[in-house]
Amino acid sequence: MKQLITLIIFSTSLVMTGCGGASEKSHMHGEEGDHTHEQLAEQTQEDHGHSHNGESNHEHQEGEPHLEGAGVITQWTDKTELFMEYPELIVGREATFAVHLTRLSDFQPISESEVQFVFSSGRGNEGSLTETEVQIPGIYGPDVIFDRSGRYDLTIIIQGMVNDTLQVNGIPVYNSVDEVPHGHAEEDPNLITFLKEQQWDIPFATQEVQKRTLTQTVDATGEIMAAKNSQAVVSAPFSGIILSSQNSNLPVVGQQISKGSSMAVLNPAIQSGGGNNYAQQFINAQSELELAKTNLDRSKRLYKKEAIPQTELQKARIKYRQALTRYQTINEVIQIDTTAIHGYGESAKSYRFELNAPIDGTIVESFFTPGMQVEAGQPLYRIADASKVWLKANVPAAHQSRIANAGQAAFRVQGDDRLYEMSELDGRLISRANSIDPQSRTLPLIYELDNTKNGLPLGMFSTVHINTDTKENVMAIPQSALIEEEGNYNVYVHVAGESFRKQRVTTGIEHRGWVEITSGLQGGEHVVTENAYQVKLASLSSEAPSHGHTH
């Protein structure tokens, strides 16, 4: 149910809240007093011939004086858009305000909220009322009778879908129609009407034109790679067979593995293809090391007793180092499993070689199947530590001059809309090639990234946006606001609540969804950023919207 507020001239103000309460000094309304928004249009038309039928036509005869007291207000806060219409306000005459409220987080009409309207003047608080129910979501319509002329300020307090306060100052109230200023308000024929009900019925958004810092970028294809110093290949130290009976739990591609973990058990072949007995070489290397260690210890004791010269001690040390180096070369990535072997060291067949992971990482490739015989040096696994990865960006050769000052970058990987900023991943440029790849005609740049939190898969392709030149304090809007027509760009400026203007613009650099506007717009203007094409269609229609628009 609608409410009526009478603004009285007493020192105390009249306050009404709820949907049915009124003080003794208020105007009570029965069923006939329950105003709809049609009343504002009817009242306005009766007073000065205003038809609000979707085209915002002000119909009057040429040369006929046009009353200028009516108001159309559009304001934006960080949370709310206010579009308010009211007729000429005459003392003693009831007037309906049509207050359209839009939540800017999703551009939906504000409903299920408590909206308080507080009128004040230089004399102080003149009166207030609160609306909690509306017939049309988003449109509130306080009915007001002013008992005194002058300038009034209106404070609108919203609690519910948003919590916000809006202020409209200087609303004029006249003693009679004769006091309303006369004039000829010419309609802009280029304005496009797109009603609030239409805006609320579709995905819709606007954005204020503001100054931003934009960085010009060069786009390139990229690939996530293992860093060269963060991967290792596990190879067969000598010819052998990977028996299925001893390798039932082989790690698989994609499996995380720790340094020192068992990778495979290799049984050495008695003879390799070249006739060398690699198992026997390992036995000999182990035996020579033990013998060299014994001789060195003996030489140290004899030298201490001055029984041998220093040169003999030095020879013993050299032989020990040679034996140790030979043994470590073979044993660096293998261990010998002797737990279930009798006669350890008595023959080459008594040895089993357990190949261990040289680093922490993920198995990215496997080159064998159980039962295979492998040759010395043949790769068995490739392990990569993906906690740090490389992003290789292949820049087209035509842009080589633009990346001379390449710095930070951002990228998107396939199947993921997220934009990864290098700065967020501790990324840094570590390599810039000086030659063009003859096959792809690209110039590679390599960035190193911290991948501990995101777990980007190795081998994933990406689109890389490489920063080049930066411009500060440039006028910018979202790229989604642009509509291209015959090689030119236009935007639709939100002039007022239901009025829009087509505006041609010239553009500059583009940066991650934003585009520089070099001419055509001013700071503080609002442009349509979502469904601007619907506004364009409205501009092409010569007919009023089928559902009309009455207040």
Keywords for this entry:
551 residues; twelve-stranded antiparallel β-sheet; 40 strands; 41% strand; elongated
Describe what you observe in this structure.
The chain is mostly beta strands. 14% of the residues lie in helices and 41% in strands. It has five helices and 40 strands. The strands form nine sheets. Strands 18, 20, 30, 31, 32, 33, 34, 35, 36, 37, 38 and 39 form a twelve-stranded antiparallel β-sheet that branches. 32% of the residues are buried.
| Amount of beta strand | 35-45%
Q: Mean pLDDT, as a whole number?
A: 80
Count of β-strands? 40
Count of DSSP-assigned helices? 5
- Structural class designation: mainly beta
Terminal Cα span:
16 Å
Radius of gyration computed on alpha carbons: 41 Å
Major β-sheet profile: 12 strands, antiparallel
| Spans of at least 5 consecutive residues with low confidence | 8-67, 337-344, 542-548
**Portion in helices:** 10-25%
In short:
This protein is mainly beta and 551 residues long. The strands form nine sheets. Strands 18, 20, 30, 31, 32, 33, 34, 35, 36, 37, 38 and 39 form a twelve-stranded antiparallel beta sheet that branches.
Q: In terms of topology, how is this protein built?
A:
Blueprint: E1 4-7, E2 14-16, H1 38-48, E3 50-51, E4 57-58, E5 66-67, E6 71-76, E7 80-86, E8 94-96, E9 98-103, E10 108-109, E11 114-121, E12 124-131, E13 139-140, E14 143-146, E15 150-159, E16 164-173, E17 182-183, E18 191-193, H2 196-201, E19 205-208, E20 210-226, E21 231-235, E22 240-241, E23 256-257, E24 262-268, H3 278-304, H4 310-331, E25 334-336, E26 353-356, E27 361-366, E28 373-374, E29 379-384, E30 388-396, E31 409-413, E32 420-421, E33 428-432, E34 442-450, E35 461-478, E36 483-485, E37 488-496, E38 499-511, E39 514-519, E40 526-530, H5 532-540
Helix pairs in contact: 3-4
